[in-house]
## 1
Amino acid sequence: MRLATLSHIPWPENNLEPRALIANACDEVVLAEHLGFDSAWFAEHHFSRYGLGSSSLMVMSHIAAMTKTIELGTAVLLPALHNPIKLAEDTATLDVLSGGRLSVGFGRGTEGYEYHGYMVDWEESQRRFRETIQIVKNLWTQTDVEYDGEFHKIPKTNLVPRPLQNPHPSVFIAATRTEETLQYALQSGHMILSGPVADTEDAINMCQNFIDVASKSGSKADISEIPFFRYVYVAESEEQVKEDTEIPLQWTFDMIKWRRSLLVESEVNHSISEWKQQNEVESSNFDDLLNNRVIVGTPDQCIEKILALKEIGIDYFGCNFAFGGLSHEKVTKGMKLFASEVMPHI
């Protein structure tokens, strides 16, 4: 299997300051390269403790200077919130700086305070999403680019520098249940990627649906090429697994619920415990998370779950090791245990 890491650099209350968390995330990629992981991916999020990836390309540029061989990816960028020229410039420059190691994943994100903060209407998001990606690709690959779109008017423009990869970095589209986005991915010839948030069965079904629709339309798509991400943690005993991960996992999925409920103001200056109490929200059951949403356990338990994915064709597996405020020491210990006890068997 090809193996990846993923981080959105979470920032729970009463945790380290952003500077330390970002530094830890960078060091974890250096370790991932040393341990033999193929790629490291970062998410874009805004205004939230859910993730410090407001400028994920800058973080990845720093990582590019710290590493030599590991591929770098965005999972995902939100093109509807970006100026397409600036996005093309930044991604092209990162591809050059990294020696051609960049893959670019795009997604629409979710309706809420990220779009509100950028003063972008969610109802326009699908059209903005497509238009921005098309302009970025045009700038990556063409000379004297002009574009007269619904949202962007671009006079004759040339991108300098162009991406190092020819014709451009690999492009992925976030897996979704939205038919429009699915059809866009198929029509544009891009592979999808599957994030760690959905139940594992739902994520598999979205991937399989993409492959089935592609096959019916005469396109070639292989599930083995889809980066498939899960929250992952390995410890030596079930007791240690629960002690280390129950609270971080519950914080992660509580935060997902909370931020989806906020359309205008983010949660960053509020307390998650107060929100849960005021809205009578119960945290996700730990056993339910273990059974349906994450790959967390002893080495043998993780091997069994990953091999089950491999049996259905998943061959590009991504691990979000750093979730919910897990300490850097626990994250790196879990990564090393994954590398020594799990990787040889998958």
Note: The mean pLDDT is 97.
## 2
Amino acid sequence: MDQRSLRGVYIVANDKVGENAIALMSSLRLYDPDIPVFLIPFNDDHQQVASRLADLYDVQLFPDLAFLDALTEKIGDIFPRDFLALPNKMRKLAAWFGPLDEFLYIDTDILFFTPVSDTLAYLDQADFIWCDYHYKRGLKDVFSDVVPQQNIFDDEALKDVFNSGLWGSRKSALSLEQLYNVLKDCAAHHEYFDFSSGCTDQPIMNYLVLKTLPRRLNIVKAKPGEPGSWGGSSHFERRGDVLFDGDRPLRYLHWAGTPMCTGGPYRTLWEDYRYRNDPDGKAVFEARPSLRPSKLQQMKQRVKSGLKTLLSKA
């Protein structure tokens, strides 16, 4: 890394997911107290979360909101609504055009258990990084069978599919012209993508990265023994403030579609991080009635978790 390069983190949030954003930032600041973090607003309803994150964790607001609005409008013009119903879901793409030279993008349904700077260090080896085992699931939630059938990407490239909730890159790796050209290509080929599970940005993100960024690195392949991270995995063990997979501490935990609610997986850990530096928020939380998932919801989640565990071992 150039000593003058600025490394940091982007998150996307609005007031609706403010609680998750606070929990995420609590974990980031515990292990990396000084790293710059910028909030990309999901929409105009972000004043409350922006204020809380600034007060509690020194999170800065993305400095060019006019660019953000223009980017969202342009994406809305490129994609028909039956393809991309909510262009705001692609606002994470603004990370390539913000103030950070090298960055990690992190979804708010994540907790980190290691210094973010350790993960960012892998950008010394690549222009795009991620850290997950999504490739073991094949192309599900990313591409349809049309992509391998038509050789849109070769087999090696298709082993680089990733979850779009945690990834990193550098500002110089992608131009705005490249971005718009690839998005137009996406919009012309709805048949390439697997939206069957409700994923929206993830298929498009994967297409963009595989088309434009050949210097890619999946940390789980670069570091043998890297533990998993999915919040639907029931075997992780809590030791202090960290989850372990056997004797291996997790880098991070990503709920990724797993219910984040009272009684849900690893909820007590999430609550501990959420209220670690916010006693006023904890008092409000404890005054609320308990909301537990129904037995049917719990059963559905157990079935879903079992299926994903089987697929990951296949």
Note: The mean pLDDT is 92.
## 3
Amino acid sequence: MRYCAHRYLTTGTNRLFLMTTPLIRIDHASKTFALPDGGAFHAVRDVSLEVNAGDIFGLIGKSGAGKSTLLRLFNLLERPDSGRVFVDGRELTALSKRELRDARSNIGMIFQQFNLLQNATVFDNVAFPLRIHGGHTPAQITARVNECLELVELSGKAANYPAQLSGGQKQRVAIARALASRPAVMLCDEPTSALDAETTRALLATLRDINRRLNVTIVIVSHELSVLGEICNRVAVIEDGAIAEQFALDDAASLAEPRKTALGRELAQHGAASALAANTANTIGTEAAYV
């Protein structure tokens, strides 16, 4: 057992959180892209943000608001023009290329369009990050891949190719691949946008289970209120590349506060309705126990 920079104890793959020290910290980050006409698009504007260990943190905003670019700053798939990024006690923006590659093994990511290797089996897709980062024997890779596939309920699909899978199954393979290196953080970029409603519910249940069972901190980008309202405990509303507001979805006092944005108001209403439904279900269950 060891004491980690983000202040939790770890035993094997299990983490016990000791306190809400930020696991992720974005410090005054900005990102601008040059436009063909010589202009500039300010995708992220002076954003500061903290995500605590164990959170399922949502980023929501309209198309073009900058939420996906902001998410890609978390693992430096996009490097900020200014500002700093800290994950698990390390400043990613200060690392060398080799150090950053090693640090990224602690950050899993799943994408809107799955990003699977089409000519590789499910097994080889999940094994890919383990082989890239090295340090694993073939037996260790096999054991970890099988463990991850079991977590996402795809144990029987190891020999299949992506073309043989449904959209929901492809996204589950992507989740298994993201978990392979035992990350502390999982980044999810619009993971349900290509899925139907029933598959979306099942996928969100899988993400929630991973968060609770493995204590993986999740940051999820979505334009769907129902998705973030269903799974997140904290959210930030992104407008024009900046954080317009952020608040807790699992705290009644926070939900009761006046919201600054239309999206914030809708999310707060969704959170309050979900809390009421959960309380009603608990009350009915308690009453039934005494009948």
Note: The domain at 2-106+183-284 is CATH 3.40.50.300 (Rossmann fold).
